[in-house]
Here is the input.
Amino acid sequence: MDFTLKIWRQENATAKGSQQEYKVKDISSDTSFLEMLDALNQQLVEKGEDVISFDNDCREGVCGTCSLYINGEAHGPKKLVTTCQLYMRSFTDGQTIYIEPFRANAFPVIKDLVVDRSALDRIQQAGGYTSFNTGSAPEANAMPIAKEDAAAAFDAAECIGCGACVATCKNASAMLYVSAKVSQFAYLPQGKVEAAERVLNMVAQMDTEGFGNCTNTGACEVECPKGISIKNIARMNREFMCASLTSE
Amino acid sequence: MTKLDSKIPEGTIDRKWENYKSHSNLVNPSNRRKLDVIIVGTGLAGGAAAATLGEAGYNVKAFYFQDSPRRAHSIAAQGGINASKNYQNDNDSDYRLFYDTVKGGDYRAREENVYRLAELSGNIIDQCVAQGVPFAREYGGTLANRSFGGAQVSRTFYASGATGQQLLLGAYSSMNRQIKAGKVKSYNRHEMIDVVVVDGKARGIITRDLVTGKIERFGAHAVVIATGGYANVYYLSTNAMACNATAAWKTYKKGAYFANPCFCQIHPTCIPVSGELQSKLTLMSESLRNDGRIWVPKNIEDVKAIREGKLKPTQISEENRDYYLERRYPAFGNLVPRDVASRAAKERCDAGYGVNKTGFAVYLDFQDAINRLGDKTIRERYGNLFDMYENITGDNPYYTPMMIYPASHYSMGGIWVDYETMTTIPGLYAIGEANFSDHGANRLGASSLMQCLCDGYFVLPATISNYLANDIHTGPINTNTPEFEKAEIDANNLIKKLFDIKGTKSVDYFHKKLGLLMWDKVGLSRNEKGLNEAIAEIKTIRENFWKDVKVTGKADQMNNELEKAIRVADFLELAELIAIDALNRNESCGAHFREESQTEENEAKRNDNDYKYVSAWQYTGEGNQPTLHKEELTFNAIELKQRNYK
Here is the structure.
C-alpha cells in the first residue's frame, strides 16, 4: 500500500509548526501505524534529516504513551484501540493521512507529535491515592468487596492516561480522565476515608492546569481506547457535590 | 579473585529474614531527612521503592525515561501475581511457593533470597489491596485466585488480564502521594547515562534530559537501579520499544558484577513475525495453553499448500496433524514449562513444518475446546486475548487456529546482588528484573510482579538503612568532584562521537542485525561452535556500528535516533557477554539449552557437579576478556532433582 502523509512538524515548544508532506510506499496491510512511521523515519535518516518525534513504548495498547490525532480522530479511525494497535488495513491504498499531535492548552507541544502530558500526573498527585504506608495495610481479605463493585472499580481503573479524551473534547476537558480515578475509589471501601478531600483536590488541580469544563458532548467516551464510560463523570459530579456540601 | 560474599544471615531458612531485620543497622527518622537516595526506573520495583523510602522519610530522586512513571513496562504484565496466602485451602505455604520457584528456576537461584520472596508474598497482596488495586473477587467478596504454570495450587491473584497495569498504578499512586508530600522528586524524560563512583562508593548518576538534551549530574548517598531487563538485545521481543540495558550496563563498566547473562527467557506463545517492518512481538498469555492444542501438519506437502494459500488449517484432518507436545510429553502435554514448549516449536519449524509465509509459526488450536465447552465459555475465558489477536493479525481465532511462535521475553540474569540487593559497588543497589537473584535459569509465570514488588516495598527499604546508617554525618553529596566531572565529560564525548561518525546506516539496521544473530546463535538452542561464531560476529557488528552508524538531528533537543544509538551501543557490548556466559555454561538448565548437554531423548540435561554456581562477570576494560567469579549455590532446604515432563 502507498500513502501520502501530512504530518505536523514543530522543532520545539516555542517554534512555529507546520504541516509537511511525506510519501511512503509498499507498506503491507499487516504493518502497524507506528511501524509505518518507523519506515518513514528510516527514509529520513537515509536522507540525513531529523526524524519525526512521536511518543510510543509498549506497542500493545496498555502503557498509554502513544497518542496522535489521525485524520481528525484521537488514535485514528478504529474504535477501542490506541494508535499502536492500529493497522494499515484500516486505511485504503493511496489514501492521504493527516497526523497531528494531541492538542490542548494543558498539553504543550514538545516536538513534532510529542506533547507534554505531565498535567495529568499532577492531577493524580493531588489526590489519586489512598494514604496507607507500606507495612500498615490490614490483611487483604479483612475487607470483603462485592464482586460487582470490584469489577466496576476495575472498569474505571483501566484508564491508561493517554489523554485522548482531552484531545478530542472541544473544551479540552479532562473530566473523563479524572472521573475514572475518582470512580475507582468511590466503588471501594479503601477509598471512602479520603473521598471528599480527593475529589475536591483533584478537580481543583484539573482547573489549575487549564483543562476546560465539561459540556456533556460525550466525545471523550467515543474516542477512549479503553471504553471508559461517561457514567464515571456523573459519579464524580455526585461525589463532588457531596464533598462541596459537607466540607468546611 | 575476590570472593563473592552474598551476606546470608544466620539461622534456619525460615528465620533468616527475621534475624537480618533484628540485627541490621537503622537510621533514626530525624536522620533520614539528611539522606538522599536516587532511584532509576519507576516500574513496579522502582516505583514501590520510591514510595516506601519516601514514606520512611528519605529524600528520593526518581528518574525515568518515560513521560510518566505510569508508563513503565511492568504495566504490560497480563496474568497475575503469586502469593502463598493459601486462601484456597489447598495446602499452599511459604515453603511450597519457595519450592516451586526454585524448582521452576531449575535450581540456579539463591535459596535464601527465594525463601524471603515467598515469605513476603502475602504482605504484598495486603499492600496492593489497601491501595485500591481492584483484584478479581468471589461472590462472597473475598479475593479470587487462579492456577498458573509450574504449580499444583491456586495462588495467583489477578485483575482481569491487566494485573501488571493495576499493580503499577497502585505503586504509582503511592509514589504520587510522596511527590505531593515533597519526599519524592520526580524527573521524567531523563535517561541515566552513567553511575558515578567516589572513593569506591556509588554517589550519583549522570543523566540526559530527553527534551533539552542537557547532560546533568545528580548526587545521592545511595543509588538504586530498577531499570528492568534486557530482552530487547534480540531486537524483536515482547518488551516495550525503549526498554534497554544502558543503566545496568554502565554500572557493570564501573565495577558491578553482571550475573548469569545467558539466562534469557523465550516465551512460547507470541504472535509471529509478519513482515520486514515488524518492531515488536506481542505476547499471548500463557493461560491459553490450558485449552489450546498446539500442532503442525504431519505431511510436508500440507505445509507447502498452507504457505501457498491453497489449503486452510481447518481442512487438515485429525490424523494428518502432529500435536507434537502431546506426542513428546504425554504427561504434561500442552502445559509443559515455557522453555520446553519454546524449544519444541523451534524444532518443528527448523525441520520445515512452520505454517506461515516465513516458516516460523505453529498452530494453537481452540476447536476442541470450543466443541467441548461452547463459544461462550471460551469467550469468557479468553475473549480479550482473542480480540487482541484478531486486531493484530486480521484472523478470527474462533474459526481458524491462532499462529504463534516463541519470542524473547524476560531476563533472569542481571546485576549481581547480595542478600541485601546490594551490588559489588557499595551503595549501589539493583532491584526487580534488573538483578539476577530469584528466578534462577527460568522464571515461572506470575513471579516477576511478585519479585519486583517484594524488592521495592519490603526488601530494599529494610536493607538500605544498614548501609545508610554510616552516612548520617556525610552531608549532601558534592557533585563538583573530579569523578562527576569525568563522568559528565565521558557522556558528552559519547554523544559527540556518535554524531561524528556520519556513516551510512541507521541505528535500527545494526540493532536488527544483532537481533537476528542473537536469535540464531544465542537463542533457544546453543552450541560451542555457534557461540564462538556469535562472539566474533558481534564484535564485527559493533566495529561496523562505530564506523558506519548515522545519527541525524541535534544533541540539544528531543532526538529519538540519538536515544536509540546510546542504547544500542550498550546492547552491542552486552550481547557479547551473554554469548561468553552461554559458552562457559556447558550444561542445559532452564532457558539455557546447550546442545552438548542433552539426554538420549534430546531433553535438557543439567550438570550440578560442574555448574551449580552463579556466574558473576567482572569488567576488565575494553577489549579484554571479563573475569568470571563463581558464587557456589548451596541447597539446604531443598533436594536437587532433574526436571521431567514426560
